[in-house]
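Lab meeting, item 3. Inverse folding demo.
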């Protein structure tokens, strides 16, 4: 760790041993998470914490201590993964120095839908959401589990509820994940349903199963294999092409984004064919 050149003392109140224990965690594991994330040094004596390091990171660490101590009044047994998620939303010293800050300085962003509130955490997710709101075509590239599809569906649902678009088109290439499934029984919808299941799960969470079924029947929401998109013109639609890394160049050209439409094309493992 670099030599500290700035220090600040923060005293937490009111004094509460359960809250203090929740803040620090077992064997001070939460304090160590703050130190590692923000590259600071924290010394504790009771309810008084001395934080030293880079000035920007020291201020963020002090704010984190106060916020987590306040949160511990509601959840005195905070788990380490909850602290980790909170810290992930805080920019590190390197990100502050090397990247442009979010315009309003906020590293969290809420998308409110009918049934839930989806919170984007971290600068990359905030920028991803704002780009979808401001631009017609966006590419989301990243490892699995980073929220590309989930956040895109949340933005689509929010746009539909705000009447910015008239329907949502969710598109996926029908590609097996390394194993041959063989013949699938049922009609066409039943055959492609297993491949589109992640999109159904996101819609059920944000709108509720009954409303999703009604919208599917009225074609307000369409879940379509990419092979069926050739030649379609879709105005005033929010189009999401999921699993874009499994497409060919010809299929990417076939994906329609029309006037008045928005699109989000998502790929995993840092690969997007187009």
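The presenter then showed the designed sequence:
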């Amino acid at each position: 760790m670099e030599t500290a050149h700035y220090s600040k003392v923060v005293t937490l109140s009111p004094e509460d041993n359960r809250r203090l224990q929740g803040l620090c965690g077992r064997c001070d594991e939460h304090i160590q998470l703050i130190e590692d994330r923000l590259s600071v040094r924290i010394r504790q004596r009771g309810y008084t914490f001395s934080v030293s390091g880079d000035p920007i990171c020291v201020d963020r660490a002090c704010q984190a201590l106060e916020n987590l101590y306040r949160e511990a009044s509601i959840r005195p047994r905070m788990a380490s993964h909850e602290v980790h998620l909170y810290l992930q939303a805080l920019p590190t010293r390197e990100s502050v120095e090397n990247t442009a800050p979010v315009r309003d300085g906020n590293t969290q962003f809420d998308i409110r839908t009918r049934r839930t509130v989806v919170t984007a955490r971290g600068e990359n997710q905030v920028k991803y959401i704002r780009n979808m709101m401001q631009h017609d075509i966006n590419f989301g590239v990243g490892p699995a589990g980073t929220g590309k599809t989930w956040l895109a569906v949340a933005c689509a649902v929010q746009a539909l509820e705000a009447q910015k678009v008239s329907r949502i088109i969710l598109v996926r290439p029908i590609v097996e994940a390394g194993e041959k499934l063989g013949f699938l029984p049922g009609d066409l919808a039943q055959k492609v349903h297993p491949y589109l299941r992640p999109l159904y799960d996101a819609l059920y969470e944000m709108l509720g199963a009954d409303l999703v079924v009604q919208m599917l029947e009225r074609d307000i929401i369409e879940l379509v294999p990419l092979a069926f998109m050739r030649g379609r013109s879709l105005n005033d639609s929010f189009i999401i092409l999921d699993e874009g890394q499994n497409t060919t160049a010809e299929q990417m050209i076939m994906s329609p984004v029309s006037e008045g439409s928005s699109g989000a094309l998502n790929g995993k493992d840092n690969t997007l064919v187009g």
